[in-house]
Amino acid sequence: MPRHTITSPHAGRRTALARRSGLWSALLLCAACAAGDDTEAGPTGPVADDAPRSVALGAWQPGPAECSTAIHDRYSTVGPDGKRYPTWHPPVDPLSGCSFGHEHGRDPRGSALYRDVGDLPFGYANEQLDAANLGLRRHEDHVGHKIEWENDIRLGSSGGAGAVIDLRCDVLTKLHEGTHSKDAFTNNLHELSYHIRCSDRTEMHVTVLTAIGRPGEFERTCGGTVRVGPATPVNSPAGNGRRKIPEWSCLEPRVLVGAGAKSDFGALHESWETHVEVRTAEGNRTIASFDPYFQVFRPSRYFDARVADGVARPVALCTAHAHEERQARGHECEAVAQAMAGLAPSGGAFALLPFDDPRSPFNGVRRQVDINGNRLRNADGPTVWYTDPFGRNARPTPFPGSIRQRLASLNNDYGVGLGGPTIGGSRNYGGPGVRAPN
After folding, report:
1. Which structural domain range is residue 6 located in?
2. CA distances from 250 to 253, 274, 327, 334, 366 (A)
3. Is pLDDT at 202 greater than 50 in this prediction?
4. Which helix (H) or strand (E) holds 127?
5. Three-state DSSP class for 255?
6. Same domain, 36 and 80
């Protein structure tokens, strides 16, 4: 695999020297400490090249007092197509100290798979959809790309005759999880990168636009389908899995409570349940499949058909019913009240905290991934396949708009990690300035 390079605006000759001397990580950590950032420091290093820009590289624009686009865009990598893409960066630039206002999850450089996989090019599958000439165009915002990984996780699977097979796996994955806007109400195509390597030789490296459920609709977290409107593109294919999004009828009985009770903001929970298949050109054989579920807690939106575009803000629940018997109560609303105390008018009421204020507790910085089934039927196949952006039409040679997928040459019929472990649930990816949209 070709190595990718993350660039930074802070170029200097010390870059090569620090790398050669083994001081590179220490320099970054010290820079992060100086900037007041307690997350893993972001990489820096000068790269001068004339790689063409992808559509994704220009998707983000800063808010007031945030890092410039020039600083942000230098956290980039060159994808397999030779174009430059945005990639992971810390919430705070470690040398300038400015905030990007959003985060992308866990620094992938700590993954045991990073040496082989490299930096993940955000938006690569979306770009290949343009090149595939399938009559579809789908580009996603920048802030929704979220990385999670874990090394040496234990997956117990059932083998023959009821035996239990003890496996150890490294997992690195990224899904575009848009939890702040109306996009996921209707759009079911979301970029997914999935990398797993296990002690039984199971190995998959797959990037696709995965179709999560049907376009134009989503499922309520408490059950039932909400049909919203046409997706973009309107001819998006339907897929397996489902996008479970909180809706007002699900939230109202659990969030609006009487005196002495606390709201159950656990109801504000999204579940992006995927089922991905890599299929041959004939369409009659699945050579790989996997089912990670991506969970998001306290996102900055829920669906309410009474609101324009259906986008309602949880932070408003802490003030909208403040003078009613049943209202939102508890730690989240106390945090909102404390944030707005300086602006509170007489009488003890407080103004509405903007949904994109960094002090809002509804920002989607807590997430987890369920590592579920992983299946291979590739014993007689090559280790490299090329598919269209949806994982279909797999063949051994590239074609326009194809994506290179790597799969171990083996059959794994029993699956790996049925009801497998959860990763990332104990981490909080918030940081200075992180806010919705995130």
Report:
1. 1-100
2. 7, 22, 15, 22, 21
3. yes
4. helix 124-132
5. helix
6. yes
